[in-house]
User: Which sequence fits this backbone?
């Protein structure tokens, strides 16, 4: 490659010829084909033979800028006239041979004024940038002549790429960075899927798995004929998923659900706001129509589950015996509580996977233990008789303004309880609206002093072991002193001469004390125990009291006397009814029975075990006491209001003083009015026990307050059980002794 020619200090501007006047115009004829001369060329250069120049590459921008900057500050000398250069071998005045044409890029046509000069000028400006003056700006017209036209514009330059480092190295570095990042992801993936996979799998499963209880169908409670007293119906449980409920939606949900479900708003808000909780029950036993209403609101995070609800079709009928099931599905009173294990069955469960949106994942984990339905319980109660007994006692409690009352109907031959009514009662369908003190069963939970109804036990003891007969005479005053205690009859009377049958018929406390002295304290105590005093009846009812009967070793010097006429001891109503059932059954005590048996899922009935039977007194003694009790319902007795036309009725009134809890004595404590009896007296098939606690209106005596209820209930029971009158004549009971 040839060396780039340098630039002289006095040569003319490149690309222009010089005429004789110093102006740029075409030279001689041969000069048009001659290569434009450069300023500063020596003679040896002018004499060289023309040669074809090798095209050189366009200099980079920085080099062109350097040339421009270097030439801008170099002073130029005004060119003088110059003769055309003569080549070697050329004679003076001889024209130079034409130079071979050189291919050039097409250029814009020059002005017609000086085509040759323009061509030379264009060739020069195509390879060099325009010259600038000392000020750095574009050079103006040449001084001293010329047309002053600007040179034609240069064609655009081709951008030369900037060469960086080796691209292979850059690619290798990039691959290393990518490999490093991928190795981090791979390491984390190995950690999650192998090293700690069990931990995260367990955590994820805990988040998805939800345990749902599968409630068992609770068994029904029916009466002896299969009529439902408590039954299970379809219901819904309302639940919430607090993780899906937004904070700004909670109040609107509370405002809608609280009044509909009867829930406390503050409690409901706390349940909806529980952190890290996916499932919480809001209500149980919701009716299907209410559940459909709640579902129609489309609250996110609120749902329903199928379950069952306890329903009592007869409202308050036998509520004290049956009890109720609370909102949690557990028996809370009565048989529902004591027999909950039998009735409830065994609940099952199901574990399912739940999506974050609360939807069941169909192909996810699904574990299940099916529920086992409870067994039904068939009672010995009869619905119609129960209704009559409850209606009668409610009416009398209201009429006498008594604190409470109860009625028991019993079959003395089998011990089966046919009715157990108490007042006031409650509705187990809406138990929360009633007083909690009424949820129990006063028939077994409430102990009272039996009073004169307990005198039959003393009569059985003295006739069985003391040699006393119905005709044994006693001189009976209206009061008697034993040690330092004065005992009186219920009313003042003159001293009377009475038989023991008369003592029982007139319910004389003094005559009973006199007869009890024929036996010792231990014998009296044992007879009371044999009749069921001081021990539970064994009925499957919660909270039963055994009553109060202290052993003789704990008696004071005078305790045996009030015990003989039914004070200082206490019993429940079922215990007292069992005493009269024993007398009616010929002296054989049959333990009271309330549950007839159970019913399985296949409706197969399993009878309850037979009740225990115990011969307490002889049949002869029992028959004699029964005849004596018939005298109570005569006009000379204390309970003529207990008579039932066409039937022989035996029974005993009771009017016991209650202990005043404020003083510990009997003054101001009120009374317990009672009556217990059976019919027909000569063939007993039904026993009815009536108790009224603290009657305040009318008479407080058992013959006036309790005997009418006995008559009402016994009359209905005899008819419903289709018990005909025996038609026999009652015995003549000798009340007054003959000298």
Assistant:
């Amino acid at each position: 490659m040839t060396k780039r020619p340098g630039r002289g200090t006095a040569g003319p501007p490149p690309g222009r010829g010089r005429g004789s006047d110093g102006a740029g115009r075409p030279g001689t004829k041969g000069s048009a084909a001659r290569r434009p001369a450069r300023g500063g060329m020596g003679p040896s250069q002018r004499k060289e033979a023309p040669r074809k120049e090798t095209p050189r590459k366009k200099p980079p921008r920085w080099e062109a800028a350097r040339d421009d900057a270097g030439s801008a500050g170099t002073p130029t000398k005004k060119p003088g006239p110059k003769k055309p250069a003569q080549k070697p071998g050329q004679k003076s005045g001889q024209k130079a041979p034409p130079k071979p044409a050189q291919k050039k890029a097409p250029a814009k046509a020059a002005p017609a004024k000086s085509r040759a000069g323009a061509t030379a000028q264009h060739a020069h400006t195509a390879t060099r940038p325009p010259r600038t003056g000392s000020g750095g700006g574009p050079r103006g017209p040449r001084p001293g002549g010329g047309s002053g036209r600007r040179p034609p514009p240069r064609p655009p330059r081709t951008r030369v790429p900037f060469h960086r480092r080796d691209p292979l190295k850059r690619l290798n570095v990039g691959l290393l960075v990518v490999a490093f990042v991928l190795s981090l992801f791979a390491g984390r993936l190995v950690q999650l899927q192998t090293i700690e996979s069990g931990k995260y799998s367990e955590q994820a499963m805990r988040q998805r798995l939800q345990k749902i209880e599968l409630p068992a169908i609770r068994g029904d409670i029916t009466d002896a004929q299969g009529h439902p007293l408590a039954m299970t119906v379809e219901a819904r449980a309302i639940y919430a998923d607090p993780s899906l409920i937004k904070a700004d939606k909670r109040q609107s949900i509370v405002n809608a659900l609280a009044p509909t479900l009867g829930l406390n708003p503050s409690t409901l808000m706390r349940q909806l706001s529980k952190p890290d909780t996916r499932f919480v029950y809001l209500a149980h036993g919701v009716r299907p129509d209410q559940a459909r209403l709640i579902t129609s609101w489309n609250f996110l995070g609120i749902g329903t589950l199928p379950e069952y609800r306890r329903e009592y079709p007869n409202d308050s009928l036998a509520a004290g015996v049956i009890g109720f099931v609370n909102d949690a599905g557990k028996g809370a009173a009565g048989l529902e509580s004591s027999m909950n294990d039998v009735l409830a069955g065994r609940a099952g469960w199901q574990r399912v996977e739940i999506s974050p949106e609360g939807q069941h994942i169909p192909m996810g984990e699904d574990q299940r233990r099916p529920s086992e339905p409870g067994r039904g319980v068939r009672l010995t109660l009869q619905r119609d008789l129960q209704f009559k007994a409850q209606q009668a006692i409610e009416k009398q409690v209201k009429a006498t303004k008594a604190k409470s009352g109860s009625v028991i109907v019993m079959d003395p031959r089998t011990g089966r309880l046919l009715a157990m009514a108490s007042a006031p009662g409650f509705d187990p369908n809406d138990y929360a609206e009633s007083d909690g003190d009424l949820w129990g069963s006063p028939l077994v939970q409430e102990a009272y002093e039996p009073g004169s109804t307990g005198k039959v036990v003393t009569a059985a003891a003295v006739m069985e072991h003391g040699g006393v007969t119905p005709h044994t005479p006693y001189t009976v005053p209206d009061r008697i002193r034993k040690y330092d205690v004065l005992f009186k009859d219920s009313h003042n009377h003159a001293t009377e001469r009475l038989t023991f049958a008369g003592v029982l018929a007139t319910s004389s406390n003094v005559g009973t004390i006199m007869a009890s002295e024929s036996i010792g304290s231990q014998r009296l105590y044992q007879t009371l125990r044999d009749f069921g005093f001081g021990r539970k009846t064994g009925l499957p009812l919660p909270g039963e009291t055994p009553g109060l009967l202290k052993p003789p070793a704990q008696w004071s010097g005078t305790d045996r006397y009030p015990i003989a006429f039914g004070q200082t001891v206490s019993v429940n109503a079922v215990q007292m009814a069992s005493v009269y059932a024993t007398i009616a059954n010929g002296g054989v005590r049959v333990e009271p029975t309330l549950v007839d048996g159970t019913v399985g899922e296949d409706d197969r009935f399993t009878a309850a075990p037979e009740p225990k039977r115990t011969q307490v007194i002889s049949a002869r003694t029992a028959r004699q006491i029964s005849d004596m009790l018939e005298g109570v319902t005569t006009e000379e007795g204390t309970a003529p209001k207990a008579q039932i036309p066409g039937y022989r009725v035996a029974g005993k009134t009771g009017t016991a003083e209650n202990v005043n809890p404020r003083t510990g004595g009997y003054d101001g404590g009120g009374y317990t009015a009672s009556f217990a009896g059976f019919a027909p007296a000569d063939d007993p098939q039904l026993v009815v026990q009536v108790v009224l606690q603290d009657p305040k209106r009318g008479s407080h005596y058992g013959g006036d307050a309790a005997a009418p209820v006995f008559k009402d209930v016994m009359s209905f029971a005899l008819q419903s059980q289709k018990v005909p009158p025996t038609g026999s004549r009652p015995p003549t009971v000798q009340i007054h002794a003959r000298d």
Q: What stands out?
A: The two ends are 178 Å apart (CA to CA). Confidence is low (pLDDT under 50) at residues 1-50, 61-138. The first strand starts at residue 209 and ends at 214. The first helix runs from residue 43 to 46.
